[in-house]
């Protein structure tokens, strides 16, 4: 089973925090983690969302020992380390994937993506900029009857 991009980015943050915890925090007191997944950073900021509570706890533990910053950077903007990480992620797509569970939102996203692809193939002439779609539902209905 494939996971969502969000879940993969979350796992990358967890792995970065593990590296900081196990190696870097012993030699450095200032750590900056660059991340191009704004959605993960927003979820970390939203304390009502409990999905990342374990990550928040690990962040707090590390922040007691090092000056830790999670910094958003734009993806695909020729930042060397980010481009290298993206290339490694693409290589990983071809490897066997670890079994993972999906939460409701992830399942919904994956279904939406899969259904959208099939819909585009079966309705190749669909153009949402067509004037027909600017009409209200009550005016569209008689045209189809």
TrEMBL record:
Record keyword Transferase present: yes
Q: Which Pfam families does this UniProt record tie to the protein?
A: RNase_H
Q: Which UniProt keywords apply?
A: Nucleotidyltransferase, RNA-directed DNA polymerase, Transferase
Identify the residues that the record assigns to the RNase H type-1 domain, covering every copy.
1-94
Q: Does the keyword Disulfide bond apply?
A: no
Give any GO molecular function from the UniProt entry.
RNA-DNA hybrid ribonuclease activity
Q: What is this protein called?
A: Reverse transcriptase
Name the source organism: Elysia marginata
Which lineage? Eukaryota, Metazoa, Spiralia, Lophotrochozoa, Mollusca
